[in-house]
Amino acid sequence: MIGSLYCGIKLTWDYAKRTVDLSMPNYVATALERFQHPKPTRPQHAPSRYTPPSFGQKGPQMATPIDNSAPLSDAERLRIQQIAGTFLFYARCVDPTIRVALSSIAETQSKPTQATAKAAHMLLDYLATHPDAIIRYKASDMILHIHSDASYQSEP
Fold first, then answer.
1. How many whole angstroms separate alpha carbon 99 and alpha carbon 95?
2. Are 83 and 121 in contact (CB under 8 A)?
3. What angle do CA 118, 86, 2 make, to 5 degrees?
4. Cα–Cα distance, 105 to 15 (Å, whole number)
5. Which residues, in sequence order, are CB contacts of 69 under 8 Å at separation 6+?
6. pLDDT tens figures, 26-71
7. Average pLDDT, consecutive stretches of 10 residues, N- to C-terminus, the chain (156 residues)
8. What distance lies between CA 23 and its chain's CA centroid?
């Protein structure tokens, strides 16, 4: 018999269609409750802020503006770190849509600012709007060949 739960990930097998769905029911709801995040007043359908490119502009374009906002307190920094850690597992397992937003929050978590807190709030609003992601894997006839160097970077 094949299991239906692995490391908190629910596995839903469909043998006729040769698929397996991975989900983490109630993971987001539990985390939002832990972080005392209220339900957003308007649905949030993007996990992070989008900065459109400026076509025809001379010189380099910044993907995000430089952050000059005020730093957060130690308690707020700890909250940002907890949010990043909690949802990193979820993103890797079942919801790749939040990886970019989570990465930008994680890269500033040691010295977070008001902009980091705003980004974390936007991410939590997105997760509250879309709480139960499911990722589906489908069997195929593909043959994957891998070559590996087991002694990578092992020379003195």
1. 8
2. no
3. 140
4. 39
5. 113, 114, 115
6. 999 999 999 999 999 999 999 998 877 778 878 777 666 788 999 9
7. 84 94 96 97 93 79 80 97 96 95 93 96 98 95 78 54
8. 14
SS3 31: helix
Instruction: State both tokens at 26.
Output: 């109630």
C-alpha angle with apex 90: 125 to 145, nearest 5 degrees? Answer: 135
Q: Which H or E run includes 13?
A: strand 9-14
Predicted pLDDT at 111:
95
Yes or no: say if 119 and 101 are a contact pair by the CB < 8 Å rule.
yes
Strand duo 5-6 + 19-23: pairing: unpaired
Contacts of residue 136, defined as CB under 8 A and 6 or more positions apart, other chains included, come to 19, 20, 21, 22
- For residue 124, the number of C-alpha atoms closer than 13 Å in the C-beta half-sphere is 25
Instruction: Tell me what pLDDT residue 153 has.
Output: 54
Q: How far is CA 23 from CA 20, 65, 83, 115, 138, in A?
A: 10, 35, 19, 30, 15
pTM of the model: 0.84
CA angle 96, 101, 105 (to 5 degrees): 130
Task: Enter the tokens of residue 142.
Answer: 């593909």
What would the two tokens of residue 136 be?
A: 């589906």
Give the dihedral of Cα atoms 16, 19, 20, 26; nearest 10 deg.
Answer: -90
